[in-house]
Design brief:
Elements: H1 8-28, H2 33-52, H3 56-76, H4 78-92, H5 99-102, H6 113-129, E1 133-137, H7 144-147, E2 151-156, H8 159-165, E3 176-180, E4 183-189, H9 205-216, E5 220-224, E6 231-235, E7 238-243, H10 245-256
Parallel strand pairs: 1-3
Antiparallel strand pairs: 1-5, 2-4, 3-4, 5-6, 6-7
Helix pairs in contact: 1-4, 2-3, 6-8, 6-10
């Protein structure tokens, strides 16, 4: 029978739709938008069943509802759709074939070991003194809009400078520091806050900001807790709490390779 025909194109079609739905689910998981999405998806499934049963009147009504629902989805899920598009672009963007990229294998890279050691030393010191800190390391995503919210520093990364910025009486200690390569580009930066509702109670504003920036970008955010002195980090919207300094070193080394 015709409806049993199943070819390669049908498989690809189903796979792409399933993948897109899964990625969207991962973005809205734990947020208030999850319940709204479940209702809309349920109405859509009912509409498909009604159409298959040739219930013309009910099918027409639900069809009009779904037509309006597309506009409603764009309004309700505008933040989630934006996150999805940003993640998709950052993950699957084309490689830029610049001269720097073509000759990168022949150019000696600068040593970043001292930069990592400086960051580790600062984090270890702030952990002992329970000094709150939030440091963001961009990967491929441009954080220019985030950097513009802070004060420009453009200084070489040192443990003394990081500890000075996050000292409790410093005017910049409440914001985030953005480090690009071996430089502290800006301090006191304002980060987006995650909308997730499934986080532990001990997670504070710095942790929520770290998750927020890594949900939208491919950055890594490192947090030092002011209350407990624990070091944590967030990547791809996932939070790893209370890590040892060796694990932080491993994460930073991976970013440099």
């Amino acid at each position: 029978m015709a409806f049993l025909d199943f070819g390669l194109i049908d498989f690809i079609d189903i796979f792409i739709v399933a993948y897109l739905l899964y990625q969207f689910y991962m973005i809205i998981r734990g947020t208030s938008a999850m319940n709204i999405f479940a209702v809309i998806f349920s109405v859509y499934l009912i509409w498909l069943i009604v159409k298959a049963l040739h219930m013309e009147l009910l099918s027409g009504i639900l069809g009009h509802i779904m037509g309006v629902g597309v506009v409603a989805i764009l309004i309700v899920f505008q933040q989630e759709i934006r996150k999805f598009l940003l993640l998709f672009v950052s993950k699957y963007s084309k490689v830029e074939f610049s001269l720097e990229y073509l000759f990168s294998f022949f150019i000696k890279k600068t040593d970043t070991k001292m930069q990592i050691k400086s960051i580790l030393s600062a984090c270890e010191s702030m952990k002992k003194s329970k000094t709150g800190a939030l440091i963001v390391f961009p990967n491929k995503t441009d954080l220019e809009t985030i950097i513009e919210t802070g004060d420009p520093i453009n200084a070489k990364t040192t443990s003394q400078l990081l500890e000075t910025i996050f000292f409790k009486n410093s005017p910049l200690h409440d914001g985030a520091v953005v480090i690009v390569d071996d430089k502290i580009v800006a301090a006191g930066c304002i980060l987006p806050i995650t909308n997730r509702t499934d986080l532990p109670k001990e997670v504070g504003l710095r942790h929520r900001a770290a998750i927020g920036i890594t949900e939208n970008t491919d950055s890594v955010a490192v947090i030092v807790s002011e209350e407990r002195g624990h070091i944590s980090y967030s990547q791809k919207g996932k939070l790893k709490l209370n890590i040892e300094i060796d694990e932080l070193e491993f994460v930073l080394e991976l970013m440099n390779n």
